[in-house]
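Contributing: when you submit paired examples, paste them exactly as shown. First protein:
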Amino acid sequence: MLQRQPTRPTFGWDNLSGQRPAGLPAVDELPHQRLLTSGRAALFAAMKALGVQAGDGVLAPSYHCPTLVAPLRAAGAAVQFYPLGPDGLPRLDAITPAPGTKALVVAQLFGLPRSLAGVRAWCDARGIALVEDCAHSFFGQAGERPVGQWGDLATASVSKFFPVPEGGLLASAKPLPDQALRPAGGKAQLKAWVDLLERGSQQGRLTGLNAPLRALFRLKNGPPRAPSGAAPRELGEADMLAECDLGRSEQAPPALTGRLLGLPRGRIVARRRAHYQALFDGAQGLAGARPLLGALPDQAAPYVMPLWVDEPEPVYAALRSAGCAVFRWERVWPGAPGLSDFPDDHGARWRHHVLQLLCHQDLDDAMLSRTCDVLTRSLTR
C-alpha cells in the first residue's frame, strides 16, 4: 500500500541533532510573544489585541486558506478582500478601505518572505494596523527587516515548521495586551505526547520503537477506515467557521509545544532549502508548468515550492493519487472576489493554477523524487 507523504514535520530522532541556531531570523525573536494552540488562534488573538469589534473593517488577501479568514470573522470583523500583484503582495492602488477599517492582514506567502516597506507606509498613512501573517514564514529576512518585524503584530503557525502536535504564535516589538488563556489540562498534555509518538511511528521515524508503537496504536484505533468517496460540498460561512475549529483559540497549548520549539534549528532551515531546490530543479523544462516565484532567495526557509500549472486538474489529481505532499487553496471564503471583480488579481488565478509542493524538513529524497517523477509523467503526456 502506498504511504502518503507527511504534510507537516514529524518527530524523529534526527530532530535532536544538528546546529541549534537557524542561521536566519525567526518570528520568535521578537521581544513580546504569546504561545497559542494554532496560527488561526494567533490571528484571533491579534484581532482582540487590536480591539477589533463587531463591524470593524479588516482587509484580507483574495488568495487565502479559510483559516486566515475564520478568526477575523470570529472576532466580528467585516472582511474586505483585496487583490494581489504578481509578487503576492497587496495591489495597494486597487484598495479603497471602507470607513472604520482597523487592520490589514498581509501574508508572507510560501516561506519566501518579501519586503513590506510599501505596505507599511500605506498603512501608516491611513492609521491602519498591519498584521504580518507568517504562517508560511517562521524564518527569514523580509527585505530590509527580519520576517515578522514589519507588522504591528506578527502571527505564525508553529506546527508548519516544528514537529509539534499543535502550536501558534503571536509576537510583537511592543508589549501585548493581557490575555487570559485557559491552561491545557492533563488530557490535552497526554494527547500531545500520544500524537507525537503515533505520527512518528507511522512515518517510521522512531527507529527501535516503530514496530511496537504501531502495534499499540492499531489496538487503540481499530481497523483503518475506508476513505470517503463523497465529493467535497460547498460550504457556507457558518460551516467554514465550524470546520476551522476556533473553540480552543483562548487555551494555552500543551507544554510539549514549548519544549519542541527548543529543537536544533539548523537542520530545519538547511533541509527545507535543499528540498525546495530539488523540487525547483525537477520542475525545470516541464511543458505547461513553471515555478511561480523563481529561484529560492538566499535568506528564506521555504514552506512550499509553488508551481504554476497551465492545466492543473490532471496534474493535481495524479500527485494526490500518488500520495505526494501537495495541496491547493481552491476552497475560499464565501464572498471572496473572482476575476470578474478584480480582472488583474493574481490571487484569484492562483487558487486554480498554483499547486503548493511541500518541502518541510522531514520529507526524504525518495519522496521528493516521487513528486518530481509524477510531475514529469503528467506534464509529458
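Second protein:
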Amino acid sequence: MQTASTGDEQGIEQAARGLLSGIGRLSRLLFRTGDFGLPRSSATALDALEEGPRRVSELTSHTGLTQPRVTTVLKELETRGLVERRSCARDGRATEAHITPLGRELLEQGRRRMAAALLQGLHTHAENPEHTVAVAREAVSTLLTSLESEAS
C-alpha cells in the first residue's frame, strides 16, 4: 500500500519532468525577444536592482552569478550609465549598486518587446493570452516562494 506522501512525491516528480528545461528554454526565448543589447548576466543584474539597491553579496545570491562576475557586470553597467554605486546607508564602509533611470528605461523597452512577442505567440496558441501569462506568473511565484522558504 502506498502512503499519501509517496503518491504525492510521485505525482510531483511526474509533473516536474521537463520543468527545468522548459523554464530554461522560456527564459532564453524571453531574453532573446527582449533584445536588451546586453549580455544576459547584465540584464539579470539590472532586473535584480530594480527591486532596490543591493550589495555585491546580495546580487550574487539573487542572480546566481559569482562574486567576481557580479563585480565585472556592475563595472560594465556603470560604464554604460545603467547603474551607479553609492555608499550603503546601513553600512558606510560598503557600497550598493543602484539602477539609474536609463537602466530602468532599458529594462522597460526590453519588457515591452518580450510582451509583444508573448502576445503574438499566445494569440495563436491560447484562448486568453492575458490569463495564460497571469497563471504562469502565479505558478512560478508559488514555486519560488516554496523553494526559497525551504532554503531559509
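If you have annotations for the second protein, write them as plain sentences, like these:
The two ends are 34 Å apart (CA to CA).
The first strand starts at residue 83 and ends at 87.
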